[in-house]
Amino acid sequence: MEKKNIYQKLMEVRTEFHKLELKKSGHNKFANFKYFELGDFLVPATKLLNEIGLCPIVTFDNEIAKMTVINTDNPNEVITFTSPMRDLELKGANSMQSLGGVETYQTRYLYIQLLNIVESDSFDAVSGTDANKEVITESQKKRLFMISKGKDTDSIMKILNKYGFKKSDDISKNKYNAICEEIEKL
Hints:
alpha+beta, two-stranded antiparallel ribbon
């Protein structure tokens, strides 16, 4: 049997992974979307990676989260995925818990890159064609959720109300950056 190179193995893992029927268990009530949590796909992904002969190693430093994928049949073949590190302050959490949260999120995002996991980036526009009425995309909602995590919900709702919105689904693209900036300051 001919040994596959790391790129052939990666494509095989991605192809087999996308045949799996996985359920999204994460639900963001604030932005009203479902998403994959790390636990939704880590075990089946690890099984596939092992069967095909790829070993992912995740490491962190102050600047970068990195996943190095090693071909177990030829350890000199590696692929690296990276993501910039960000601080996350969880309300009521100590610094170690916040660090753990950052590392868990980063690990999730690195696996999303590795496996080419696709989550909806579509958006539904509100009535009219005016650009001011175009609502934010799913990706923008996810970012809003991330910067809102651990912050006071009442304060976030006051910011939304200030801009004329009752929920994140209604936020227009032209107000999105200003809202994010205010939430980040909380």
